Amino acid sequence: MKAIRLHEGRERSLLKRHPWVFDGAIARGRADSGETVRVEAADGRFLAWGAYSPASRIRVRSWSFDEAERIDAAFIARRIGRAVALRARLPIASSGLRLVHGEADGLPGLVVDRYGELLCAQFGSAGAERFKGTIADALLAATGNPRLYERSDASVRELEGLPPVTGWLRGEGGTEATIEEHAWQLTLDVAQGHKTGFYLDQRDNRAALMRLVRQFGSRRVLNCYSYTGGFSVAALAGGAAEVVSVDSSAPALERVQAHVALNGFEAARSTVHDADVVAFLKAALERGEHFDAIVLDPPKFAPTAAHAERAARAYKHINLLAFRLLAPGGLLLSFSCSGGVSADLFHKIVAGAALDAGVDGAILQRLEGACDHPTTMTFPEGEYLKGLAILKQV
Ligand code: SAH
Fold this sequence. Notes:
alpha/beta, 6-stranded mixed β-sheet
């Protein structure tokens, strides 16, 4: 077993069970991509077993802080079994769920989503890549699902020095799936969709939108960055007369319209716009339009804290435009999925936008990712999705 020796004083985060070791913390030792290493303090004391990644700034991701543990197929099967067992006890109102959420499930870099009988995995770290076959077998054994599609094409792979890979890992066949989320049927394609096909993390917030639309009697709803229209269907289910969905992906918008039909809503209640959201918001303001509820669920503007300042300006801009476009008494559901922007900072950004728009906003609800995307107490970086439901006071 190769050993990685840290600089004096750099053992602190591992002692607090934070799983990452950055390149600058390492005094000596190296290994192959994904190889299991023993991480030691400057005095040789055991700290963790981890996976080495020569290309990444996150040079080691810890598997375990228990010296007696062996990182083998049985270990992987235990961790996967634990993650699957946890989901079985969580209140998840869908047949689509996240089974493995990386670091939070003790499997750094590994994401696995389950869409009914179909599994889709993303191997985003050298360690997960190294154990790919073992992970695939363990997933099939733990779930009883026969088919597993790989979507290892996220940009994080580049940082790990790994090439993009997609395709069937186990089983074969069609890549389309239909899930039942709350009372709705939603479809996706694990091969063509974003990420593993669907944004499962917004499940509870879609239900929150449905309730708010119903409570406040919102008639015209604008869903910005709609993707395939999960929030659009939620707004219609809440009784909105009309939903406008805006996204820059034409295939996603086709699916919005398919979802409206699939869930039994009249086609006339749904309009889609293939457009840049900022351009759309500006044009709608110029036309003098108003909406009773607006959803803003943009892509990650700040992947890390280093991008936070530029991201803050972008978030502020879209929120400012949305506040102006809202009718008095209207609702804004505004989100950020940027790991580099904390919930506290996001709150300040949205408050600044309200102030500049001259809007008196009441926070109705603080929103976060669904419970199958858990965060551990030792890994705050895992907490990425945050949102606010705000009422524009009359
Ligand atoms: N709310 C969605 C998920 C949104 S993901 C859901 O619940 O499923 C972010 C979406 O923003 C993606 O669909 C992407 O195509 C879209 N997007 C990214 N940049 C955009 C832009 N500048 N204008 C419009 N849409 C954009």
